[in-house]
Design a protein that fits this description.
eight-stranded mixed beta sheet, binds S-adenosylmethionine, Rossmann fold
């Protein structure tokens, strides 16, 4: 199963096992938004990124590309399922449109002083009862590890590289603060998921899901 569908479904069911049937039976017909999709474009989602990644005849899923931040966005509809749009400007989409919003390794790219407003806008796009999925580096985990066991990060330099990501990370998140932030912004039943050790780039990331 494609990456975005697989992880979104898996974590929603892990978080809300009592809603397993609803999630499984309705997932394919849900209206789904993949914010900051990068190369993880899935044609069963509306994929949004500031970069125009035309993947019509390619499957780049899972590949790493070097992305550049382009801030003069032209808000152009590129191809079916892909919308070139700045994630600060998602208020251009209709309110309460989506059943689920997926953002993986994206919130850390929001300027620290714009996180609340930006997430508030994203959440406003969810239908009542819609699900919000966020996966982002866990900066508490990184700091704890490098100053503790050093199981993953052997040196502080190695950790900084991950933390700053070539100067493209503009905010930092940890499970408790992000959970409280999402609750404050109107989500309920916010769950912090256990780290999935099978996921390749998992070591320093956290996943939270919530319901509008
Ligand atoms: C680390 S990548 C994650 C890509 C993908 N979600 C994944 O899991 O592989 C971060 C993505 O956020 C996008 N991004 C950064 N700033 C953005 C902005 N202001 N508006 C829209 N997308 C943005 C980048 O272009 C990039 O594709």
């Amino acid at each position: 199963m494609p990456f975005v569908n697989h992880y979104c479904k898996k974590y929603l069911i892990d978080a809300y096992p009592d809603q397993k049937d609803i999630i499984e039976n309705n997932f394919s017909s849900w209206y789904k938004l993949n914010v900051g999709c990068g190369t993880r474009l899935d044609n069963t989602w509306i994929n949004v990124d500031e970069l125009n990644l035309d993947l019509t005849d390619k499957n780049l899923e899972g590949e790493n590309i070097d992305y550049i931040n382009i801030h003069d966005v032209n808000n152009k509809f590129v191809s079916e399922g892909f919308l070139q749009l700045d994630f600060y400007k998602l208020d251009k989409l209709n309110c309460e449109l989506f059943d689920v919003i997926f953002s993986q390794h994206v919130v850390e790219h929001i300027m620290h002083d714009r996180v609340d407003q930006t997430l508030k806008t994203w959440i406003s796009l969810l239908k009542p009862g819609g699900y919000f999925y966020v996966c982002t580096p866990d900066f508490k985990f990184i700091i704890d590890d490098v100053y503790g066991e050093q199981k993953y990060f052997k040196t502080i330099d190695e950790a900084w590289v991950f933390i700053f990501n070539g100067g493209t990370h503009f905010s930092g998140h940890d499970p408790i603060n992000l959970k409280n932030r999402l609750l404050k912004l109107g989500l309920s039943n916010v769950k912090i998921l256990p780290r999935d050790e099978d996921k390749k780039e998992v070591m320093a990331e956290l996943v939270l899901v919530g319901v509008k």
